[in-house]
Amino acid sequence: MTRIFLAALALAVATPALADTPIIIAHRGASGERPEHTLAAYELGIDQGADYIEPDLVVTKDGVLVARHETEISETTDVATREEFADRRRSKTVDGQLVNGFFAEDFTLAELRTLRAKERIPGLRPQNARYDGLYQIPTLEEIVRLVRAKEIEVERQIGIYPELKHSEFLLQEEGIDTVDLLLLELKRLGVTEEDPLFIQSFEVGPLQRLDQRSAFKLVQLVAAEGGPADEPAMRYAEMITPSGLAEIAAYADAIGANIGLLLDETGQATPLVADAQSAGLLVHAWTLRKENAFLPAALQLDGAPPGTGCDGSLFGMLVAAGVDGVFTDDPARVRAWPNENDRRCPVAGG
């Protein structure tokens, strides 16, 4: 199986004309080199050549959209070490899962401003932990202003690719409508449907409401297992069938799909790419990471989970599969494709 996978990779790199180079989306910023969802990570992603930066959006107690991967913030901030906030720890059922910790919606923006970001996976990215304690949690407004400033500096257009996190939970349990908040904030900041912007969600309802109320480009996220939290009867497996994709195309412009749904175990494209594009949907793949722990066995180097493997090889397969965009933690490595530095990788030298 490994030989088949590597042979497929070699073919992909030998025939790059199979697809235009997809757009590069800095996943949570250049999160392979800086703590995720910080202005430093977003700025580095832009400097490394990303076409879009991706902030996950949660909301504060006083209704401000801020960037964190989850509403529970102890994995990515120092909140658990702050004695003044010890009484904020609680348990909540988020999308059917019992979660204990500290939640962004229980803090005002001023309180969140006192926290500092930290690396989420220091065991795999110890170099990122050097930046722990340096950065604040950014607001959506700060992210938009950063992008505008960087566009002037780098002399090119940069897109924003926000994800609304746990919208149904926040609406039903906390009374916070993140769809309303996002549309109001984008209007206040002067962001229009003409700007390069994709809005993504794993849920269906928020995207359908956004489709009814705006002309922003929308992305239905789909995973290898489970289904949308706001539609318990729906399964992602059914949503990515031809009939399911036609239904998605009625309200969305693209799907954001787990790489495992787009490439089979031999490294060849699954029918999903062609089926989605036939339905009029763009296909964006998530998430390309350089660490062995996130790569197929055939693309791991030295067999050590913390080590760096052949992420460029996997990118080559996604290009050959014809995807329209790729989320990556390391935009610079993707931009260097197909000229990987490590000659042990199957795509080395093209």
TrEMBL record:
Q: What Pfam families would the database entry show?
A: GDPD (PF03009)
What this protein catalyses is:
a sn-glycero-3-phosphodiester + H2O = an alcohol + sn-glycerol 3-phosphate + H(+)
From which residue to which does the signal peptide run? 1-19
GP-PDE domain sequence ranges: 22-338
The record's keywords, sorted A to Z, are: Glycerol metabolism, Hydrolase, Signal
Extract the InterPro entries matched here: GP_PDE_dom (IPR030395), PLC-like_Pdiesterase_TIM-brl (IPR017946)
Q: What EC identifiers does the entry list? A: 3.1.4.46
Membership in a protein family? Belongs to the glycerophosphoryl diester phosphodiesterase family.
Q: What is this protein called?
A: glycerophosphodiester phosphodiesterase
Species this protein is from: Parerythrobacter lacustris
